[in-house]
Design a protein that fits this description.
The complex is a heterodimer of chains A (462) and B (49).
Chain A: H1 22-33, H2 43-50, H3 54-57, H4 59-82, H5 84-108, H6 111-131, H7 134-140, H8 145-174, H9 178-202, H10 232-235, H11 239-259, H12 262-269, H13 279-307, H14 309-330, H15 335-364, H16 369-376, H17 378-400, H18 410-428, H19 447-451
Helix pairs in contact in A: 1-8, 1-9, 4-6, 4-16, 4-17, 5-6, 5-9, 7-8, 8-9, 8-13, 8-15, 11-15, 11-17, 11-18, 12-13, 13-14, 13-15, 14-15, 14-18, 15-16
Chain B: H1 8-43, H2 45-48
The chains are: A mainly alpha (462), B mainly alpha (49).
């Protein structure tokens, strides 16, 4: 059965449609699926209500992140073919259905249903939803692709900020027994469905030949910004894709190095000083890092429109390595220095996520940029496993070796610097894509254009 | 050809679009503002403890 209302041709913008209606459509999806990072709110109640261990209660989230990577990687081409409205609708259905299944699981005491619902079904919603607006935003904002994708991907960071206090308050009022958890999941599923529906109804793709009013493509020769188009299948066969894969993986791993251990780290660093850090202050530090993570997504991604993508990643990776070095050498001597360096690192972590779609667009064109982005997100999944593994393993081994305070983190910080330098080298190796990978002009038309009954070029106001 | 004079319906179009733009930005902006408020409230603990 085919839902005609979700067909790409039905999502083509009518004359006069403002492109500033598209970022809220993207945000309604990303602010919702970003809830995944607030899963920890449900862990303690689930553990006490269902008698689970900490490892078990993390399973729904872990499976969700794995499914995010897999569905983004394997569903990307389908998203490009069916368009953003279809993708957002799929994301809505999967993400909300995941919560409803989890509610049923909590009500009946069946933990496997929570894992399957939230992790597997909801995880598909995460992956499809994450990539759903990327290609569309880049087409609407050819003059500022970094800013546009930065707004959407900032939303993913912002989703946890909303969900964390909201879910906590809901559990407080419904209770933390099975019935209360089920009711909370049920409300999440219904409210997120309503919130994401805005994106499904609002999202539009620009008509064939559309350009922002008064904007002309930059005619200056910029070797890393192509006017050619590369398919997702060809892109993964280029060294540029794998260089960017390494860049993203290293940048994310380095960011997780701080995120994973932020609270114990700041306490250990200043444990033997005249001004030790209390537990509530450490929680405040973690909150500040979340703010830097979110702000960096918008700020640095928008900056990349001005200084270029390659230069922006030079900053993320090069200055990021210097920030880690500063923490390793002087961090325990100055609390403001430690905090500032950590904030900069986390802002680069967020910026790295938000800038990569525009980098892909520069290298591979807009033809299947969403699908290429989906495949690149496997670097995130890898880093999500690699980062915590390195940091926790090193911290444990240093503790076993009898180290304490800032000495616990010296090796971790050195590893992070090396990883960032590897990423820096990979970024330096990025060159323009060889023309043999370019699509012939006729086949590089977008799927929306192929299915649109009337491909007449139109000029709309920005 | 003489330019078509604008009708009240033409004038309502941009106003409706502006209202829609404001509405949808509020739809996503208000929850985000709530999240930011809660976060900043928590982050201040770093300086008060």
């Amino acid at each position: 059965m085919r839902f005609e209302v979700l067909a790409p041709s039905r999502a083509v913008a009518p004359p006069g449609w403002s492109r500033w209606l598209v970022p809220p459509a993207a945000l309604s999806v990303h602010l919702s699926i970003g809830q995944a990072y607030a899963w920890s709110v449900f862990k303690p109640p689930l553990e006490s209500a269902l008698g689970l261990s900490g490892t078990q209660s993390a399973l729904p989230f872990q499976l969700g992140i794995v499914m995010l990577g897999l569905s983004a990687a394997f569903g990307g081409t389908l998203v490009e073919r069916r368009g953003p409205r279809w993708a957002m609708a799929v994301s809505l259905v999967c993400f909300s259905a995941g919560f409803l299944l989890a509610a049923l699981g909590a009500a009946t005491g069946q933990f496997w249903l929570i894992v399957f619902g939230y992790g597997f079904v909801g995880g598909i919603g995460l992956g499809i939803g994450y990539i759903s607006p990327v290609s569309t935003l880049i087409k609407w904002f050819p003059d500022r692709p970094g800013l546009a994708t930065g707004i959407a991907i900032m939303g993913f960071g912002g989703g946890a900020l909303i969900a964390s206090p909201w879910s906590s308050r809901m559990l407080e009022s419904f209770g933390e027994q099975r019935g209360g958890i089920a009711a909370a999941f049920l409300v999440h599923g219904v409210v997120y469905a309503a919130f994401m529906a805005l994106g499904v109804l609002l999202v539009r793709v620009p008509p064939d030949g559309w350009r922002p009013a008064g904007w002309e493509p930059d005619q200056r020769s910029r070797p890393l910004v192509t006017s050619a188009q590369v398919s997702a299948r060809s892109a993964v066969r280029t060294p540029q894709f794998w260089c960017l894969w390494v860049v993203l993986c290293m940048n994310v791993t380095a960011g997780i190095g701080i995120l994973e251990k932020a609270a114990p780290m700041i306490r250990d660093f200043f444990a033997d000083t005249a001004t030790p850090v209390s537990a509530p202050a450490a929680a405040g530090f973690v909150a500040l890092l979340s703010l830097a993570n979110m702000g960096g997504r918008l700020l640095w991604s928008a900056t990349s429109d001005l200084i270029g993508r390659k230069n922006m990643y030079r900053v993320y990776l090069g200055v990021g390595a210097l920030m880690y070095l500063a923490i390793a050498r002087f961090g325990d001597g100055s609390k403001p220095l430690f905090i500032c360096c950590a904030l900069v690192i986390l802002s680069f972590y967020g910026g790295g996520f938000a800038t990569v779609p525009a980098y892909l667009r520069d290298l591979f064109g807009t033809y299947q940029v969403g699908a290429i982005h989906g495949r690149l997100l496997t670097a995130w999944s890898t880093a999500g496993v690699l980062g915590p593994l390195i940091v926790n393993w090193v911290a444990d081994s240093q503790e076993d070796a009898g180290r304490s305070g800032s000495g616990l983190y010296g090796l971790s910080l050195t590893i992070m610097i090396v990883l960032l330098l590897v990423g820096f080298v990979a970024n330096e190796l990025v060159r323009p894509v060889h023309p043999r990978h370019h699509e012939p002009a006729a086949s590089a038309r977008t799927p929306e254009r192929q299915e649109a009954p009337d491909g007449t070029p139109q000029q709309h106001s920005g | 050809m003489a330019p078509r004079s604008s009708t009240p319906a033409d004038a309502r179009g941009p106003r409706r679009r502006t209202a829609l733009t404001v509405l949808v930005w509020l739809w996503v902006g208000l929850p985000l503002a709530y999240g930011l408020y809660e976060l900043i409230d928590k982050a201040t603990q770093l300086f008060t403890n």
